[in-house]
Request: fold
Amino acid sequence: MIRFAIIGAGRIGQVHARAVAAHPEATLTLVYDAFEAPAKALAEARGARYTLDIDEVYNAADVDAVIIGSPTAMHVEHILGSVRVGKRVLCEKPVALDMAEAVRCMEELGDEARRVMLGFNRRFDPSFAEINARVADGEIGQLQQLTVTSRDPQGPPAEYVAGSGGIFKDMTIHDFDMVRFFLGDIVEVSAFGTNADEAIKAAGDFDQAMVLLRNADGALATIVNSRTCAYGYDQRLEAFGADGALNAENLTATSVRKASATQTQAQGPVLDFFLSRYEAAYSRELDAFIAAVVEDREISPNIVDGVEALRLAEAATQSAREGRTVRL
Ligand SMILES: NC(=O)c1ccc[n+]([C@@H]2O[C@H](COP(=O)([O-])OP(=O)(O)OC[C@H]3O[C@@H](n4cnc5c(N)ncnc54)[C@H](O)[C@@H]3O)[C@@H](O)[C@H]2O)c1
Reply:
């Protein structure tokens, strides 16, 4: 049984607490947050104790592993603090708000980096994972183009945007990791950003973005992002190769379709947001983390994946701001 502490009892902390509760080899013993209300609510809901003192997490003898869902600016401090006292870590994306901090984290971790997993949960989505495995098996021949579509149902609150690092580091980071999952290292990035949401514009961030990337073999990827989407959480992927294509479409609660005199193929709404759409991915992510901890082996995705996704986010930010392609 792996005994977990959760740092940060917000949206994603609650998602992880649910996955831990559902896992037969995991139990939640402690919740830490900077504020009492979220810490207490999550701890009480999951039968754990809570603390407002981070040292209690580090010193807890009944905590083997820590899940970090604190605001991004706190990730490096929480990773280093947990690893220093011998805990295993599953940390949410992105590693940090800038490359210098992420690289410092990687360097300070040294060999202990093997104890840290990065929360790129979409690699564990059953559909995306299957496409990745089938591409690797050569089923569609040489991979030539990857299209990743990711649109949120509604924008985050302004205070979240302010501390998020911007759309490329906060949102597109998942898609940068997905592109690396399929195409490996990227050599060119061209990004465009624009605004349809006045509140996000006022916060100094883009709410719509498109990014074009190329790897050293010449394979291309396109990422399509929007912070808002009228029909819900739009999460699709297409891998296009010399011998065919593999597609993952949006998921709905059931597969029921309606046909009538005025329409065909009408379906219920798409799953509403990350908690429901990626529920299986978070649970498979936790499975992979626990298996690596139990077998004491390398964890993937790791800190290098976190740093490299952030490198792409910084390149995209520069590209969109300066109106030019960035070569890596
Ligand atoms: N993988 C995913 O699908 C996914 C989804 C959402 C968020 N995230 C990531 O998770 C992190 C948290 O995002 P969220 O949406 O849950 O935010 P949130 O604002 O809902 O929750 C953050 C929580 O951290 C607490 N907090 C504030 N300062 C703190 C501190 N110094 N130490 C510890 N806790 C502190 C807040 O009180 C709050 O409870 C971000 O890094 C975000 O990028 C990942």
